[in-house]
Task: structure prediction
Amino acid sequence: MAADIKFMKSALTLAKKGIGNVESNPAVGCVVVKDNKIIGKGWHKKFGGAHAEINALKSCKQSPAGATMYVTLEPCCHFGKTPPCTNAIIKAGIKKVVAAVKDPTRKVAGKGFKILKKAGIEIKTNICKNEAEKLNAPFFKFAKTKKPWVIVKWAQSSDGFLARSDEKRWITNSASRKDVHNLRKKVQAILVGINTVLADDPMLTVRPDNGRQPLRVVLGRASKLPQNCNLFRTAKKSPVYIFKGRNLNNVLARLGKRNIQQLLVEGGQKVITSFLKQKLADEIIIYTSNEKLARNGKIKTSQIMKKTYNRLKINYIDKRLFAKDVRLKGFIK
Ligand code: AOF
Ligand code: ZN
Result:
């Protein structure tokens, strides 16, 4: 049992390496163990690429026949962009599969386990289940609800300003801004209110371009947007959706239909407050700079935004420094 947890933790650590490149697939890690030693390791590296189990089997330094495989998700049994992992596991002669959690996808959902069992492979599951579910929380939410996992993000100065009035464009430093692009890499859509487009003329793209640009979503009236704004100028590269409606739940359902598994809400404060107030946010990320803007500040966090934020029940899972900026990251209960 202790050994199961130890090896599953190694697999979970490997899985994390895929974050940012595998979405909207889950991040999955795998180790192959023989005589209590790891003989092969692998993880799902890239959307459309080989699965964790295949990479782990390939990396084995000795024959995996008779070995135990630890994997952070039930092995798939369907032809997607890659062939079923179950086939490869059976062919390799694996004796036992320990999987952290069942794959909730309709095409798998326990069928992977069934096929392996039928081939005489012993199955053990629910090892580090909570960690495994947390690691791919958006994937599990989407499978269950068909609605995207919503990340609400904003940046503020130490005295609570969300924008600045002087000639400098940014509140946070370049390390924080780089992190935002890593965040954008994970999501399939970014949403802002029309006022943010009018005020900032944002691009809302991932830079540098990795060939997978998120959909850009604007809440507001299309007629209010200037024809030459950055969003329109780059619409060929990545589409822009404009939702007139104020019903955010409906917006989420419609994005879900378009297979948007993770949505990043980037502002402004009215839109952010609406998502928080309507309890539609799953995760919150706040970058706070160490600089006081005082007279150079524009748009201070409103009382209503503060109040709404203070009422949230948040699990703080991570506090990290980016030079002198602080990033606070939490899951909303
Ligand atoms: C696994 N191992 O490492 C991952 C799995 O289109 P494909 O072939 O890449 O299949 C994607 C689906 O496979 C995905 O929706 C999820 O159900 C499962 N992901 N399964 O056995 C892995 N990433
Ligand atoms: Zn697979």
Notes: Residues 51, 53, 75-76, 85 surround zinc ion (ligand 2) (CB under 6 Å). The chain has twelve helices and 15 strands. The two ends are 30 Å apart (CA to CA).
